[in-house]
Amino acid sequence: MEILKQIAQEAEKNTQVPAYPRSVEKVIAAVISTPNFWKVVDLSDEPLPLVAEILKLLNKHGLVVFEGNQILLTEAGNELVKKLGIETFVSHRCSCCNGRGVVIEGSLKEAFEKFLKIQEKRPPAIHQYDQGFVTPENTFARVALADDRGDLRGKNVIVLGDDDLMSIALALSGLPKKVTILEIDERLVNFIKEVSNEYNLNIDARVHDLRQPLPEDVVGAYDTFFTDPPETVEAIKAFVGRGVATLKSERCAGYFGVTRRESSLDKWRRIQKVLLEMGLVITDLLHNFNEYVNWDYYEDMRGWQLTPVKEPPKDIWYKSTQFRVETVRGFKGFNDPIVGDIYNDAESSTT
Ligand SMILES: NCCCCN(CCCN)CCCN
After folding, report:
1. Domain check: are 283 and 171 in the same one?
2. Is residue 37 part of a domain?
3. 134 alpha carbon to ligand 1 midpoint, in Å?
4. How far apart are CA 21 and CA 9, in angstroms?
5. Whether residue 231 has its Cβ less than 6 Å from ligand 1
6. What is the CA(230)–ligand 1 centre distance, in A?
7. Which residue numbers delimit the N(4)-bis(aminopropyl)spermidine synthase C-terminal domain (predicted)?
8. 317 lines ligand 1 (CB under 6 A)
9. Ligand 1 center to 323 CA (angstroms)
């Protein structure tokens, strides 16, 4: 146990990311089952910068080696695993719903098939706005989840930031009364407008920088919001806080993703405190509900500089937990201008 504590302390000192003996244990447990860096990050569920540092320290202590692009336990590493009784991960994830608790069926399925075709021409994710969209099936699973919770039919729905094309999926489902989207990236707004015209979806799509206060007419005018903010507490305030500011009243819902890839549990605690202070109740937390398609700018992101081996990501490794929140008495949104950096902190790694 001593070595785990020692490596955790050193890793925290070098990265400013909170690290625990369990962080080190989970990285070792991941290395038992995969030599691939991105899969180690995925299985360990620790922030990428911390995983990279822990691997470098394990290597320094002669417990892992980097052979080509593979991360392997040494003889000494295997001894430690035996001595500490470290076990690898076993998944019990439902193969039918992929652990999401919802499936895309009936009328949603037809809309989904249409969406699959439409999204083939979507603008690629760009680094400038920390974009990274989820799989088309995931976008529709979010629609199924919100409909399952009664948050869509006959409701006014707003999407704050939409590289995931939630606005198109929601409109294709035919469930909401009105769909509005605010998005900083003109390429996306133009694409969504074109699709809305072509398919007669009547989407209210506007270019808007969410660091600025909301347009007057959307404040207090919606029943449900969707957003998927960058992973800083500031960004949660900007995107989720503004989402709350768009809601009509108590007992309205919001949906967004929070990841473990760029957020330690210590940061999660700060995020959850911010949510409670806004007068929100967290009703659902669905682990790894969101799966992000690998973006082609990975060599430009900070995380790439930190990785101990330079193997391009192949399978989906970046995932996030889907949060559902609901307003209760005394809730208050956030609609002041945001100054400063909403994209970077010590734990972020894909910006
Ligand atoms: N930079 C690549 C990954 C970004 C994912 N973030 C934005 C996702 C937009 N769809 C944050 C994901 C969790 N909040």
Report:
1. yes
2. yes
3. 9
4. 8
5. yes
6. 6
7. 111-350
8. no
9. 14
Instruction: Give the mutation target among 119, 127, 128, 130 for probing the ligand 1 site: most ligand atoms within 8 A of CB.
Output: 130
Tokens of 71: 């991360």
Q: Is the CB of 243 under 6 A from ligand 1?
A: no
> Containing domain of residue 185, as a range?
107-327
- Which atom of ligand 1 is the closest one to the Cα of 127? 1
**Which of the listed residues 142, 165, 188, 228 should we mutate to test ligand 1's pocket, taking the one with most ligand atoms within 8 A of CB?**
228
Q: What is the CA radius of gyration of the chain?
A: 21
List the Cα angle 111/113/115 in 5-degree steps.
70
Cβ of 239 below 6 Å from ligand 1: no
| pLDDT tens for each residue of 149-204 | 999 999 999 999 999 999 999 999 999 999 999 999 999 999 999 999 999 999 99
Residue at 17: amino acid letter? V
Residues 154, 271 within the same domain: yes
Residue 15 domain-assigned (yes or no): yes
pLDDT tens per residue across span 253-310: 999 999 999 999 999 999 999 999 999 999 999 999 999 999 999 999 999 999 999 9
**ipTM of this predicted structure:** 0.93
166 and 79 share one domain: no
Q: List b or e across 32-69, with b for residues whose CB sees 16 or more CB atoms inside 10 angstroms.
A: eebbbbbbbbbbbbbbbbbbbbbbbbbbebebbeeeee
> Based on the domain organization, do 153 and 275 belong to the same domain?
yes
Ligand 1 atom with minimal separation from the 230 CA: 11
The verdict on 47 and 189 lying in the same domain is: no
**CA atoms of 141 and 317, how far apart (whole Å):** 18
